[in-house]
Amino acid sequence: MSAKNQRRLQKRNQLSRREFLCTAPLASLSVPLAFRRWNTFYTLTTKPTGIRIDDVSYDYDEFRYRTPYKFAGKEVDRATILNVRCVAHVTNGRSAHGFGSMPMGNIWSFPSERMSYDKTLGAMKALAKRVRNITADFKETAHPIDINGALEPEYMTAADEVSRRLQLEEPIPKLCVLVTASAFDAALHDAFGKVHGLSSYHTYGRDFMTHDLSHYLGPEFKSEYLDRYLLMEPSARLALYHSVGASDAIEDSDIRKPTDDGLPETLSGWIRYNGLTHIKIKLAGDDLEWDLDRVVRIDRTTTEVQTQRRVITWAYSLDFNERCPNVGYLLEFLRRLKEKAPQGFEKIRYIEQPTARDLEKHRENTMHEAAKLRPVVIDESLTGLDRLMLARELGYTGVALKACKGHSQALLMAAAAQKYKMFRCVQDLTCPGASLVHSVGLAARVPGVTAVEANARQYVPIANKAWQEKFPGVFLVKDGMIRTTNLNGPGLGALT
């Protein structure tokens, strides 16, 4: 082991022992209060199946949106896609190339009223360079989940250093670090599956993983492995969730600037074009009358179109992007919506994180009453096991899993959510191309997930063009359903 990695592990183990000693009297609790994402006495002992990283490289793709996508009070009109390639080998010398891809998504992961789009994106790119170097320098042999566990603290330290060096008005938050590192994590999982000639989802059992889940998630998971919480074969079909951005046209009269590119420009047009049955509604969160009118109008238009199509079953999800000032706003909204559009209200399947992402600072926003009406899922706040446990305490009853927060974390949070009987959904970050294939593959492997978002086809379809022929079931949808027929290949299934 290199001296640098010895110091890294020594520091990690010292911290873990302190945490363990501080929480030892609490061992009778189901999850220790100071339990962090990675368990005590962290080691990188591994099976012969572990991989060693040989090389890591990355580049970017830049795309403009065909129409802006408005959420959280801001409009996004472009995408920067981070593409990561790695080479790794196992002890017998066999090697494989891995690939990971993910939008940077700085508006969502690094929101700021004080810094420009270009400045937060620049910070993420500077961090990506550091993440690449940290990952490439890691020369121990391990499973990708353990590599990610060892490196995440290093990524966080790098983010602090980048924030200081660039003199950012606000430091890079943890969510942004996870998004920046997610393509690197995906590339390692992809390489791991490929080097063994297996789907990555077949490499999460005791034959490949050194530790059971108690090592990552606590004693309740003793003797359990990730494969217990994953489907060995992907769900054949998933409903496509179509996002209606806060500035998207519902009817022809709403069109501000026609695109005239042959794709639909209104909600009614998209329903017919893709045969939609699942619609996600982006809301303001700070204007109750606007939010009510928005949902009522969308429900009225959807009902008209579905009646013409002779479709009797469809669903909505609501996304406030943490903009509600308090839980009282949400409760009043739901009460009045039920009065105004009772049938529309009944079609709501879940509500995404309605209030501020800093749960610790806003403990007054408990979701117990709202969750009695519909599942309320944690999204922006879900950055680790500690946040999941706090969300449960505050009344959240579901989780939004996202590949953009890291494949390793998504798998672990999926397992925890199932153990705690929480509602599960998978969403994207307007993921195009390989990142959508990754996201759909994740959704198809998590029990209980029946639908998945695919927003890039609406806002940045040009980024999907090279992938449509490879994965027509994912990118060419006509009956409202995404098909996973050819997502069984080695690695994460993107055929790269």
Overview features:
TIM Barrel; alpha/beta; Enolase-like, domain 1; 2 domains
List the helices and strands and how they pair.
Layout: H1 3-23, E1 52-71, E2 74-89, E3 95-103, H2 106-109, H3 117-137, H4 144-165, H5 174-195, H6 214-217, E4 237-244, H7 267-274, E5 278-282, H8 288-309, E6 315-319, H9 327-340, H10 342-346, E7 348-352, H11 368-373, E8 376-378, H12 385-393, E9 398-401, H13 407-419, E10 423-426, H14 433-445, E11 451-453, H15 456-459, H16 465-468, H17 472-475, E12 481-483
Parallel strand pairs: 4-5, 4-11, 5-6, 6-7, 7-8, 8-9, 9-10
Antiparallel strand pairs: 1-2, 2-3, 4-12
Give a quick summary of the entry.
The protein has 17 helices and twelve strands.
- Overall 3D form: globular
How many strands, which pairing sense, and closed or not: the largest β-sheet? 9 strands, mixed
Number of helices: 17
The CATH superfamily name of the largest domain is Enolase-like C-terminal domain
State the end-to-end CA separation: 32 Å
The overall number of domains is 2
Label the structural class: alpha/beta
Helical fraction? 25-40%
Order of helices and strands: HEEEHHHHHEHEHEHHEHEHEHEHEHHHE
The overall strand count is 12
Average of pLDDT: 92
Strand residue content: 15-25%
Tell me what the CATH architecture of the largest domain is. Alpha-Beta Barrel
Low-confidence stretches: 9-42
CATH class of the largest domain: Alpha Beta
Q: Could you name the CATH topology of the largest domain?
A: TIM Barrel
What Rg do the Cα atoms give?
22 Å
